[in-house]
Structures are given as structure tokens and as C-alpha cells.
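As a warm-up, study this chain.
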Amino acid sequence: MNKTELIAAVKDRTELSKKDAENAVSAMIDIIIEKVAEGEEIRIVGFGTFERHERGERIGCNPQTKEKITIPASKVPAFKAGKAFKEAVDK
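Now compare it with the structure written out below.
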């Protein structure tokens, strides 16, 4: 399912117009991205948690030259599925 299909599904499940469903989905995605980028955790009970993890600097290997390289520290988004989500998938 892509974003367009998700918007159509939201429209079908709610009584929102296509434009309102698109605005709702886009706003939710934008807010999650913005808040996680700021370091805030977004917890949706029954669905999961969006958060930012910090990766430390580490040594890697260039697979073409086998040369060791330093991979700089970075911040990455992470999602941990909630219990109800995991149980629904496991059925």
C-alpha cells in the first residue's frame, strides 16, 4: 500500500472527503517526522512508538577495496510496534 492507497482507505473508513483524508494523513506524517527529528517520542497506544536513536561512530569496511573507513555518528528514526499491532500481525 502506498500513500495514495492509504488516503483512499482513510476516505473509505471515515466520512471525510478525499481532500480532507489527504490533509489528515499528510499532517500526521509531517508531525511525526517533525517531532522525532526534534528528539521527541511519539507513542500511539496499540500501534507503536516512533523515536530517534543515536548511532555512535564506528569502523566499517569498504566492500570494494576492503579498506577500513570511519562511519560518523548519526541520528536515525526507529519504530517499535506495540503489543496489539504485533498480536494482529501474528494471527
